[in-house]
Fold these 3 entries.
Entry 1:
Amino acid sequence: MKAKVGVYVCECGPNISEKVDIDKILETLPGLEEYREIELVVKRFGLLCSGDGKTFLEDEINNNGLTHLVLGACSPRDHDKTFIGVCKKTSLNPFLYKIINIREHCAWIISDKDKATEKAITYIRAGINRVLFQSALLEKKLDINPDVLIIGGGIAGMEAALSLAARDRTVYLVEKDDHLGGKAVLLGGLLPRQGGGPAKIREKIESVLGNDMIKVYLESELEGVIGFLGNFEVIVGSPGDEEKKDLKVGAIIVATGSGLADPAILEGLDYSKTDEVITSMDAERMFSKEGKISLKSGGDPKSVALIHCVGREEKGYCSRICCNYMIKIAGYLKDQSADMKVTEFHRGLCLPDKADQGFQKEAEGRGVEFKRVRELTITGTNVRYEGMDGKSEGLKFDMVILAPALEPSEGTEGMADLLGVPLSESGYYQEIHQTTNPVATSIEGVFVVGAAHSPKGITDSMLFAQASAGKILSQLIPGGKITPEIKVSEILEAYCTGCGNCLDVCVYGAIYYDEGRGISVVNEAVCRGCGNCFGSCPSGALRTKHFTNTQLYEEMREAIR
Amino acid sequence: MQEKMENQELDQFKPKIVGFLCNWCTYAAADLAGSSKMEIDPALTVIRVMCSSRVDHNLVLTTFFSGADGVLIAGCHPGDCHYGAGNYYARRRYALLKKVMESLGLESERLKLSWISAAEGNRYAEVVNSFSEKIRQLGPNPINKMSGL
Ligand SMILES: Cc1cc2nc3c(=O)[nH]c(=O)nc-3n(C[C@H](O)[C@H](O)[C@H](O)COP(=O)(O)OP(=O)(O)OC[C@H]3O[C@@H](n4cnc5c(N)ncnc54)[C@H](O)[C@@H]3O)c2cc1C
Ligand code: SF4
Ligand code: SF4
Ligand code: FES
């Protein structure tokens, strides 16, 4: 059967009709019929994207029994969806249609009308040639699963869980520790502006545990994940426990928090060697348990040095929360004994909240000393520093408390690998875009919140958690359907040698090696159709649907005829 | 006589250039150049691909063997690829392609790789116009003559 291709050139009002000679195009194209052994229907129309235009096209497809449709019109970025919609109302598969951009790429950029017309003919011929080699692809519609997996039961994970459960979503909250609450529940106190202190965190834990919509898995971890937005299948397991849980969810929130850099690796700091040098987290835990901070050797310290920015240079970023909590820790010490000598060694204070400057002034008022330094070394509990005036001085303290930089929590790399989410240079998860979509990742349906996203205090961690819940509630509507990408890559078994080249280039980890068959296989649910793997295959085994070699070659050949 | 012929041929030389543009950045830049009504050399015909990384060696070489005088591959700036890292692969393949072209007796300047973001309509026009000019200076693809195409 001969292909019957409908070619319709849109006038786009004066936009196209005044700049290219549409009649000339219509006269020239039939020349293709013999050479391609096809039948053409060639017409012009005022505005194809208008209501009338859409009805016109629908009638043309039906009445002429078109096998392919080519439109000489505007950018696919403007109206591809419109015309795909038209095709869907007919029996013509939308993948057998192509829009040719003769407006932006001819009419508007070539002022000589003859030249613009000639160019438009070239584009349309190339388009006809491509469309003849396109294949019908069938869209799949899948039910959306509105449930959510949250990894990490710190403040961020709990907040996201509560927000989602409030809208009747089933939430699976997976926590690797034996308790919820993350770091926040271990702290001795919160900032005064955060009112309420650790009791507030414990209240949150109780609400999570008492919520029927939230299923908490303690001492558990994510072990496998496949799928995409709306349809993830995940495996959750506990180390040492054979039995695994298979869960189906529509979205995944990563809330695994931050860790603290190990100060032992930093030069000039005697953290591991001296008992009286501890980290901020040690101090918080001690204060939380005992209500005071004591020397390891027993008794209260009379003088304490608080060292900010430990490892900031090495990490290459500011951890944002340390200046604040170090002032808070100074407060614990002053509460303990008003005449204790408390000195904060900092490198320029980071006090980002509206209440923070006042908080710092108040500490100064209570006799906490702030010293801005350029250089600093610690030997035992002796602090040697160079001030901003260039003068060096050494001071002896009973105790030193360090604020190590925050860093991606342990296991972040493995988790990123499992999820296919890229990491940024800092080692934290890479968000899709800081200004347009800061909680989403490049894997649709996977979100990153709280301190796992970047160093954050509790308030910001909660904000991110709430934002992710909002995104999920608006994207995954119960009863909704989702259409996965169908222009994906596939591997032809007969040609694949199993060399594995393609596995290495796919950023999404969409290709896996099938040991049994000795070939590589594309997981269509994960593939995004970029076509990168295609160029890596030495055997011609790869095919990127709708962007196949034949399709591009045929388009290209006509383009330079 | 011979020389005159060649000059005439050169005057009439209408270069044929294929531009493989990534859907997310450079194709959008080409649209922007269009809607800003910039004058752009008609020598280049755009072929849309999803990512610059789809443009493999075979596609480029086949384009030259089919008679194209120049090939432009253009995509998102480093770090901005819609698929994370596709353009880094494109860059690697491009470097290798240049070497292959020279060994085939094709001037490697006939192949160009550019990063043009969706907002850079201006830059798109500049790149296409200067590349078209360059190809005009280089003259027809020598393969056309060799194979008598
Ligand atoms: C010394 C110190 C003092 C601080 N003081 C304050 C303060 O006063 N005010 C303030 O706002 N902020 C303070 N912070 C910051 C605060 O702790 C964080 O903002 C908060 O803990 C971030 O919450 P989160 O849920 O994102 O991460 P986290 O609290 O770190 O929780 C992450 C959770 O994920 C779990 N997890 C990690 N990996 C996995 C995995 N692979 N699988 C399953 N579970 C996993 C962890 O066990 C943990 O329970 C302080 C931080 C420190 C270090
Ligand atoms: S097309 Fe892209 S996303 Fe799909 S398998 Fe190939 S490299 Fe991976
Ligand atoms: S690169 Fe080609 S031959 Fe090698 S594993 Fe992938 S599909 Fe198979
Ligand atoms: S999407 Fe533009 S270069 Fe990859």
Entry 2:
Amino acid sequence: MTSGEFFQFTSPQRTEAGLQALDRLPNLLRSLGLSKPLLITDMGVRKAGLTELISSILQASGGMRFADEFDSVPPDSDTGTIADLARYWHAGTFDCLLALGGGSVIDTAKAGNILISTGKDDLYQFQGYDNIPGPLKPLIVIPTTAGTGSEATSVSVIKDAERHRKLAFCSPWLVPTAAVLDPRMTMTLSKAITAATGMDALAHAVESYIGLAKNPFSDSFALRAVELISKFLPVSLKAPHDREARLQMLTASHLAGIAFSNSMVSLVHTIGHCAGAVCGIPHGVCMGILLPEALRFNLHRSASHIGEMLLPLAGRDISLAVPREEHPERFILALKEFRQHIHELSENTLPLRFCDIRDSMDSPVMTPEHMILIAREAAGDPSRFYNPEDISEAEIHAVLKASYWGYSLDQDLVKKGHQK
Amino acid sequence: MGTAASRIYLSLLFWVTGRAVQAAWRTDREVRREFDRLPDLFSFRLSVYPSGPGLTIMKKEGTVRYIRQGEEGPADLHMMIKSLSHGMSLFTFQESTALSASRGRIAIYGDLSYACSIVRVLDRVEIYLLPRVIAKRAVKRYESPPAKHRKRFMIYLRVLFSP
Ligand SMILES: [Fe+2]
């Protein structure tokens, strides 16, 4: 965007972050006038002992406790779970939702909150952009991964179990009331999840920085996020119990979340969402694989923006040594080098190409038929609105193929548009 | 332009665009393909907040029709342009529908994946309706459809004369 153009930015949220940030949770609840939280989480989080930790923090502070617990959020939550959650809420007496978990738990809490607050029983009527009528119940989020940034965003995506479609909700009312970033929640994450979710956060920052809805506010958040990820994702993998690094990654993911909540994401996510849905490949893994070539696709439109991210990603030395006009290409290279580094630090658990992802029979998880299907499905993914260049089915297929084999996309394949 | 003049201008543009969507569905393969993705009895409305002007399109029993103002029911997908001035910048082709939507000037009530199809249809229709130099600003990526001039002529004929 150039100066003088209209933009809007919303971040109506309180954030508490620190090595012991959760110790302040009782204070946070009190200051918001809340005392009867319904905890929403999943079995993985419970097994990791995180709910107990929070329980004891609440208990220690004047005997506060969860009013009740809803811990049956599945990894891929759908409208059935949301309906259960709403029923659960209406059967008890609660004054807020407390979501503890990763993307699925947080999106479930957000979508559940729509039904809870409006008293309606069908989410269908609320899908879309700016289609939620007013403020929702207070929602406090404690993320247990550093990647989705969903604790900061205005977006929730839920599977519609009946209609077999995805329901997307996007409204400033969905931004949680408060987020608490505490590294004790992410310290036990495996290397594979740390690496993949870190790539997701990086994709949010990068895509919000090049998308059509970019603006000076979201830019600042995005650039800082890129810098923090570049510094602290490697440390989080080398020393998983380094609290400082874990906290910085939570912060980065949150910053990237605020950025993309306002500027949205584009091509990497357009293809990534569909690859995830068709082949069941984890979201963060798709992000890591697709980032370089999806950016190369946009080079002719977004070269200067892509180039501006070289400094935060690769640091001063590289950025000063490379002539400015080479910054865009160099950024894509730096991204690949960074990814390679993360791949090694994660003990090869972060795949760099789709062809390396194999099932138990050692066949590739993504088949040529899948690629055709993914390219077709991508026509309906709303993140494509925000991509700087329009993209055809054939072009998506080309980006996918390059990312599958790990070669560079031929830029001549891209039909260059006209609009600035 | 004053408010009244803007309203008249937009009403005319909505009418032409709505009729042209119907005509393009008869004329252009890509537009037809987009509508094939949509369910039967699907209706779509693009209008200015709060109560118009606007256009409504309905797919019914395999055909796509522009619904005259006043005869439309509730739409499955409603794209609501948030103000008259936003409507004007969209329909004086200063920015594309995708850009308008991404800048938060359009609220979308309904399935966003259907909205993707509709935005592509509108872009395609604008390529037919407008001279190249203007259409380039109005759409995200300008691609000349095959036999553009012949189809453009057909579409204009249908806008003006088809029932
Ligand atoms: Fe993501």
Entry 3:
Amino acid sequence: MSLKYITPAERFKKYLPKDYVELVDYGPFGKTQEEAGPGNMGQFKELVEEHPMCSGCWMAYYIRLIFASLPNPEDTVTLGTAGCGRLAISQAAVPFIYGNYGDQNAMASGLTRAFRLRFPDKTKDVITIAGDGGTMDIGFSMTMHSWIRGEKFTTIMLDNEVYGNTGGQSSGMSPKGAVLKMAPKGKDFGKMPATELARAAGCVYTVRMSPTNIKKAAKIIRRAIFVAREVGPTFIHAYTSCNIEYSIPTHEVFADAKAQEKDRFTFEEYMTDEAKEVIERVEAEEKAARMARKAQKTEAVN
Amino acid sequence: MYYVAKVNADMCAEYKCNTCTLYCPEANTLMFDKSGNTSWVDVDRCKGCALCVYVCTDMLNRDCITMEMPNVEAV
Ligand SMILES: Cc1ncc(C[n+]2csc(CCOP(=O)(O)OP(=O)(O)O)c2C)c(N)n1
Ligand code: SF4
Ligand code: SF4
Ligand code: SF4
Ligand SMILES: [Mg+2]
């Protein structure tokens, strides 16, 4: 997709749905992060539309943040699988591909390769966004093999430590002892070491975090995307609680995410030397562009 | 209907803050009006979670948001 593709002819606008027109006029396409990014959500039309995820769902919040952080929304494709997250991801103004359960990283491998063959001069970002069950249980082999093959795209795991969408079965990512509706005796083994597995399989950039700090979480999402473009597979393991299955009162969801930052989701960032080079270069370029825009603005005022 | 968030615009405008709008789980729901320096709620989209109340009251100690029953007309 490109910006041109979504822009309607002026005379045709009045026949289009309001949300669509708002997206064209006030959306983030073609804009900088300062104009329409995570720091000013609530002041532009966001890519994510109304969706049926539960009230107060922290996973819905993180999905909102992912879409606001995209460096290149008009040339991005997301892939997902069954689970709560896809209910919102599929409502965003970014092409979304939904296959059989757990095959998102296999599909993304083919798509990434096809894009590079078909559009060699263009940057197209491919991101898989799936739950802990979809990524580490049922989709495990396809996740691991995409990393082992060194496929250049980003994998984001929305870890709510349960199968939320199907009513509370334990997953490989549920913590030891977790008592869930369909694990009434408590889970009897611990969380799978997701980021360690990712590194062993060849991911060149991995992060584990509880996304409570918007600026930091957005920076990580962008880093994972930039590195995947050039170096290899990248992986973000994010805590995105399920207030329903873990009985967290909705107004305490943020406090719970902060508590998890000190517990199972302490911040951990790993990058290879090559990944580090890309991050340093891109962030220096972004900073220079920001400064140039600022200087231009002050000049215009004076 | 159910309780939804309501921003006290006069109180909120004193802070020029835009923090709650960043943490609402719903996109295009808790908005910020830059000219009036106040956040506002699209009641049709608010799911009543009160996460914004946690941000304004518990985190920032400001109490500008309350959960209230909206006036809805029967159709
Ligand atoms: C092949 C297949 N098996 C089972 C299911 C049923 N199913 C739907 S979502 C889901 C698990 C979701 O768990 P997770 O990936 O952690 O996502 P969450 O809903 O917790 O975000 C399952 C087992 C399915 N859709 N397809
Ligand atoms: S079931 Fe849990 S993860 Fe799924 S939408 Fe509801 S709160 Fe979010
Ligand atoms: S957090 Fe409170 S003071 Fe800040 S914008 Fe929201 S309502 Fe206003
Ligand atoms: S109550 Fe929840 S959904 Fe409604 S505006 Fe506040 S944070 Fe958003
Ligand atoms: Mg899950």
